[in-house]
């Protein structure tokens, strides 16, 4: 019998560690991490019209409108490398996105396997933001204190010079946290009501969070 694809959502506020954990689980399970934020940043880098449209919202710390976001993610999920599933990082972020995701998966003959809600207290999120650094070449995420590169400020994998995201500056981070509370946090009860939510304590060392996530994923 063919294996059922695994579609998992990483749900949590900015800085909760969704990207860090999705990248690890992706290597473990051999299914792609689909990060809507990375897709937008790729579009900005490649100067596409979608990237130009999204940038103004991202710079303010606001959500990019659903019409733009949903089409971009639907296209990504329809590619052959998602045939065995995908780890959704940062999508959905609104109820309409969640409803559309159900339809997208149905069209692919799949369904959601589960939603990992990564919980971290707000004061910890703010502290994490100031130290986050990204590799411009491979997109890998580091933290100056909690997950530093082996040498200086260059990527362990490809030697890329790490940079700080424009939207990780304190004022934008505060706006992103407010937007999460207002527009994304309703998804917690949306998925709890459907019996899909699994709560993860994200306020632990990265390896411990990863172990908890593996345990939950094995039990799905
Ligand atoms: P998100 O994708 O949810 O915005 P990231 O995975 O980019 O979050 O993590 C935000 C920052 O916090 C990064 O600098 C990352 O290295 C760091 N980080 C991730 N998980 C932990 C953790 N469990 N403890 C401490 N720092 C973490
Ligand atoms: P992230 O990389 O997940 O922190 O996302 C960075 C920014 O991209 C967010 O602050 C939003 O402006 C935009 N973005 C990412 N994912 C979405 C989404 N699902 N819906 C709307 N905007 C998004």
Supply the key terms.
binds adenosine-5'-diphosphate; Rossmann fold; 220 residues; 9 helices; alpha/beta; 48% helix; 14% strand; binds adenosine monophosphate; 7 strands
Average pLDDT level? 96
Tell me what the CATH architecture of the domain at 6-120 and 184-219 is: 3-Layer(aba) Sandwich
In order across it, which strands form the biggest sheet? 2-3-1-4-7
- Give the cofactors and ligands: adenosine-5'-diphosphate, adenosine monophosphate
In CATH, what is the homologous superfamily of the domain at 6-120 and 184-219?
A: P-loop containing nucleotide triphosphate hydrolases
The tally of helices reads 9
According to DSSP, the number of beta strands is 7
| Helix proportion | 40-55%
What do you see in this structure?
It is a single chain. With 220 residues, this protein is of the alpha/beta class. The protein has a domain at 6-120 and 184-219: Rossmann fold, CATH 3.40.50. The protein has 9 helices and 7 strands. α4 (66-77) packs parallel to α5 and α6 (122-131) crosses α7. It is globular.
Write a brief caption for the model.
48% of the residues lie in helices and 14% in strands.
Spell out the blueprint of helices and strands.
Layout: E1 6-11, H1 18-29, E2 33-35, H2 36-45, H3 49-60, H4 66-77, E3 85-89, H5 95-107, E4 114-119, H6 122-131, E5 132-134, E6 141-143, H7 170-184, H8 186-193, E7 197-201, H9 206-218
Parallel strand pairs: 1-3, 1-4, 2-3, 4-7
Antiparallel strand pairs: 5-6
Helix pairs in contact: 1-9, 2-3, 4-5, 6-7
This protein binds adenosine-5'-diphosphate and adenosine monophosphate.
Residues 14, 36-37, 40, 57-58, 61-64, 69, 90-93, 97, 167, 176 line the site of adenosine monophosphate.
